[in-house]
Amino acid sequence: MDNNLQIDNVQSFVKAIGDNDKFWRLLHKKEVSRLKEEVKYKDQKRNISGVKYYTQGKVYAVHELETSEMSIEVEYRDGLIFRYKKEQFIRKFSNISPPISRQEIFELVRSEQEAKDAQKWKAEKQILLEKVKNQFEQNFLNVDNFYQAECTEYISFQEYQTEKLNYVQSWVQNNLNSTPDLEQNGTYAIRDLLNAEGYRWRTIGWSAWCCTYPAQDFSIQQYFDNAQWISHACGIEVRFYDDLENMLAKYHVDSGQFIPVINNLSEVHLNINPW
Q: Over the stretch 27-38, which tens digit does the pLDDT of each residue have?
């Protein structure tokens, strides 16, 4: 391997990781050579002191406590373990064996960044969920537009619909002293409109209302423009299949708005069955 990809001494290691103390964990169980063999020690609790001579030791532990200065413990051949502050370790030790690859550092950097990004994403999602809930209270009629404009990157349509349904159920129960009938959501509430437009209920596989359309000149926009049921739909999922039962597109429909989840219709020229 290219020597430029290897870090075989403490000084190069320090230069490579900069001020990120978390990377010192890469030294764990590595052999490290001393710049000077003489090791002076003193234990005031046991009232002992002396001098020993070592050419190298093994990193026994790396302590990264936020409440105290970072330290490194080195175990020597006779089993004695000495603890060094970071600055002491840099002054007293040199070679690292086996060497540390720069790829190890890169992977640790990437892992740290991914963890930070995930934490940030989770925090952003929580903030948007709170904003959605506030929109339910303050501006319910506009909440779908707010979701579409601000939240789709963080909150899935299914999550949004769940939050919306929970709010509606809670509002009805608190304000009308009644428990809403869940069957009035989805296609149940628009079954007569679907039946009038030629849809038929199918229970094989995915239970759904089905209707067949020719592929020639088929347009998603025109399909939804001509659908009488769309303005009455609440939380509807529309899927488009070809005659071989391959799903070509999937849309979520709510209060006249249709939101694409999957759309590969432009890539095919087959009979289309919207379910």
A: 999 999 999 999
